[in-house]
Write a structure and sequence with these properties.
It comes from Suillus plorans. Helices cover 19% and strands 26% of the residues. It has 189 residues and is an alpha+beta fold.
């Protein structure tokens, strides 16, 4: 997502979160937000940072402290709930940032493509890395967006019908990729 508008001016973290909310409201079957949308530049290292209207950081392409940017957005729709996070980088990432993001992406792909026997728990799928943030959580429709009892540190078996997020992250850099997954049976040949 590019935060430079047609007029060519930068916007704040608060304004970016507001625009995320407006995009959600325009979607078919939109009912409400699942939580306050988060847009974080220099504050991306704080997992549940919420930008305030006054004093919010400006999102710029070449911020000396950090060019990372994280958007965390969720909505309640008549046909389901979503919880999504994406990380962007404006400028050229360092080698450490590139390696960290690659690790997060590899973890995300591994969970997304996992095929496992029935009765497997999410903790058996977790790679055991300490992200300083959970690898994922249950997702309720019109309930709590962080719904128990299943999450990636849980000993509860994942069964068809469970809906869970896949969100490995490295908080040191403010990097996270989050998508929603549905557990279903597959035929293995």
């Amino acid at each position: 997502m590019d935060y430079m508008f047609e007029q060519g001016y930068n916007i704040t973290e608060y304004e970016a979160a507001w625009h995320l909310t407006e995009y959600r409201r325009q979607n078919k079957h939109y009912w409400s937000l699942a939580y306050e949308n988060i847009s974080a530049g220099p504050n991306a290292t704080l997992p549940h940072y919420l930008p305030m209207k006054y004093g919010a950081w400006m999102i710029e392409r070449d911020t000396p402290t950090s060019s990372e940017h994280r958007d965390d957005s969720g909505g309640q729709y008549r046909d389901g709930t979503c919880d999504t996070t994406r990380t962007s980088h404006f400028g050229r990432p360092s080698v450490d940032q590139s390696e960290a993001y690659t690790r997060v992406l590899q973890g995300h792909i591994a969970i997304d493509s996992a095929v496992f026997p029935e009765g497997t728990t999410s903790s058996q799928l977790d790679d055991g890395l300490n992200y300083m943030h959970g690898t994922g959580h249950g997702l309720g429709s019109f309930l709590n967006v962080h719904e128990s009892p299943y999450r990636f540190s849980s000993s509860v078996a994942l069964v068809p019908g469970h809906v869970i997020t896949n969100e490995p992250s490295i908080c040191r850099w403010g990097m996270r990729i989050e998508s929603v997954l549905a557990i279903h049976r597959v035929k293995v040949c």
